[in-house]
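2024-03-11 09:14:02 INFO worker-7 job=invfold-0412 stage=load source=structure_tokens
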């Protein structure tokens, strides 16, 4: 989750939802009586007797009910303000990854502030690199984009005998600098955008993710973000992390170690405060949202971590085969 604005004195916080786990955090933060603004759609009638048309609206509701679904958070409440004459009454604001909402409370409790901090610190930092002929630029993408600098070299004409040698030397030195900056900044994710025909050559010289871009320089850095390459990288990273967690679970099961699976075993482990990581699939959540919410809430209250798995992914299918919910434990129970 990205916090775009916060002023606890006035009670107002504005956030961008970046993943499904953020929806769970928001379901714990948003309470009955809170004001929530967001973009939605609503059926609007221009004249009596005409069939209503669904149109995009900006609407603020005073929340009366919060319902967590696997892919969205449903906020039902009375309309307080709206961008058009859509009438009063009630409206359901469905919040999904990518949406921006504004939350206003009379008072933010310490527990709610901590949940907000936890959700915010989940965001991964990414080192962005754009490479063109003789030019390499870097920026750190986190809460915003911080430009880190450039690396330049003069290239001879392409027909010059030394051209290929100069190009290879430039690429090796530029990529060495990238690794130095990644280590210096403590960044795990590096995304390299290459203009022209450089992508294949760069792939041979680095194990980092390489994508094609149209421009070098700062424009190239912006293009990496604009074309969705960062989101794709983080999705792939999440799948990799999910796979490792489920593999770890299966290893624990094989050696009869620290694990639990199925509702009863997980509940028992939660009762002992033993759950370190709760693995729950969106398929399980769809079947019983009330039970899912109970298990996730208790895990969070006892300082455990909640990971939501996609049932259509390989790790998700494996956990569905174990009942849809499982846990890695701090100790055997």
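2024-03-11 09:14:09 INFO worker-7 stage=emit residues=333
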């Amino acid at each position: 989750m990205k916090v775009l604005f916060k002023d606890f004195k006035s009670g107002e916080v504005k956030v961008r939802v970046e993943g499904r786990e953020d929806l769970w955090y928001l379901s714990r933060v948003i309470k009955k009586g809170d004001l929530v603004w967001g973009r939605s759609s609503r059926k609007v009638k221009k004249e009596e007797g005409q069939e209503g048309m669904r149109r995009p609206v900006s609407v603020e509701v005073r929340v009366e009910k919060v319902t967590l679904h696997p892919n969205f958070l449903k906020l039902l409440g009375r309309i307080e303000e709206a961008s058009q004459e859509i009438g009063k009454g009630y409206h359901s604001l469905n919040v999904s990854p990518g949406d921006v909402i504004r939350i206003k409370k009379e008072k933010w409790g310490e527990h709610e502030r901590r949940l907000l901090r936890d959700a915010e610190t989940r965001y991964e930092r990414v080192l962005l690199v754009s490479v063109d002929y003789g030019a390499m630029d870097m920026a750190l993408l986190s809460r915003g984009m911080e430009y880190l600098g450039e690396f330049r070299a003069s290239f001879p004409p392409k027909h010059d005998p030394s051209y290929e040698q100069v190009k290879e030397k430039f690429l090796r030195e530029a990529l060495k600098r990238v690794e130095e900056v990644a280590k210096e900044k403590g960044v795990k994710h590096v995304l390299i955008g290459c203009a022209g025909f450089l992508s294949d050559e760069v792939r041979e010289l680095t194990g980092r993710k390489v994508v094609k871009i149209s421009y070098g320089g700062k424009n190239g850095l912006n293009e990496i973000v604009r074309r969705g390459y960062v989101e794709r990288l983080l999705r792939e990273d999440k799948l990799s992390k999910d796979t490792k967690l489920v593999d770890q679970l299966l290893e624990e099961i094989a050696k009869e170690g620290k694990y639990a699976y199925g509702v009863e075993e997980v509940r028992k482990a939660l009762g002992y405060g033993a759950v370190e990581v709760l693995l729950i699939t969106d398929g399980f959540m769809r079947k019983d949202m009330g039970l899912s919410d109970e298990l996730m809430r208790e895990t969070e209250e006892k300082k455990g971590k909640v990971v939501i798995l996609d049932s259509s992914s390989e790790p998700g299918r494996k956990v569905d085969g174990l009942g849809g919910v499982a846990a890695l434990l701090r100790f055997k129970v």
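2024-03-11 09:14:09 INFO worker-7 stage=report msg="Residues 229-254 form the longest helix (26 residues)."
2024-03-11 09:14:10 INFO worker-7 job finished
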